[in-house]
């Protein structure tokens, strides 16, 4: 057997072993991660709820922004709508007046870490949650009990630690991710919501993290149309209470 042939066989074996290792890693990673059904059953994570009520939760990530969040708040007030804002602690520190306005207007203020880090470190995430919780409390006098992980990334370990710290994790309805951060156009954002909305959905918008003019203009189309259809705009905590109570009315509730 030639030396060249030996090298070729060795290379092929290496590729096969690499493939098997990768397949094993993916399999064990997927197997270790509990699914949506498990977390919905335990109540640790909410994506949306099943209800006959015409209710929807509008959620906003990555704020507060001194300009765009104020514009969102103006629109919500115009249509008697309540929203849930997953805020970044360091931005709240820069714009406490916007956070205070959220609170005073009856919106729900929730936790989205302090610096919006892209990390898998559980200790870092918990540290950032605590920082943001303290910041929100210093502004509003209320500590949040809802948390949304950065980019929706979570593991079993992250969920366990977040729940131990008395938080519920909030995701969003899979078909109601507006992807407004990509600037897809006002019509695309609006149509994503209006064409696919169901009772009990949780819609994902962004009021910070960049230019959010498209989000504001889309919201100006979405709110009056859904109001005309008879939808009520409630907070995530109200939605959770509605689900838990199993009643055919919206529970009146302030900030969670």
List the helices and strands in order: HHEEHEHHEHEHEHEHEH
- Flag low-confidence runs: 17-32, 250-256
Provide the helix percentage: 40-55%
The total strand number stands at 8
What general outline do the C-alpha atoms trace? globular
Q: State the major sheet.
A: 5 strands, parallel
Mean pLDDT: 89
Number of helices: 10
Helix/strand-derived class? alpha/beta
Radius of gyration: 21 Å
Strand content: 5-15%
First-last Cα distance: 73 Å
Overall description:
Helix content is 50%, strand content 13%. The protein is built from ten helices and eight strands. The protein has helices at 3-32, 36-42, 68-78, 89-94, 96-104, 122-140, 156-164, 186-196, 213-228, 236-245, and strands at residues 45-46, 55-63, 83-87, 108-111, 146-147, 168-170, 201-206, 232-233. It is globular, with a radius of gyration of 21 Å. The model is unreliable at 17-32 and 250-256 (pLDDT under 50).
Identify the notable features of this structure and list them briefly.
globular, 256 residues, alpha/beta, 5-stranded parallel sheet
Strand and helix map with partners:
Layout lengths: L2 H30 L3 H7 L2 E2 L8 E9 L4 H11 L4 E5 L1 H6 L1 H9 L3 E4 L10 H19 L5 E2 L8 H9 L3 E3 L15 H11 L4 E6 L6 H16 L3 E2 L2 H10 L11
Parallel strand pairs: 1-6, 2-3, 2-7, 2-8, 3-4, 5-6
Helix pairs in contact: 3-9, 8-9
What's a concise summary of this model?
With 256 residues, the chain is α/β, with parallel strands linked by helices. 50% of the residues lie in helices and 13% in strands.
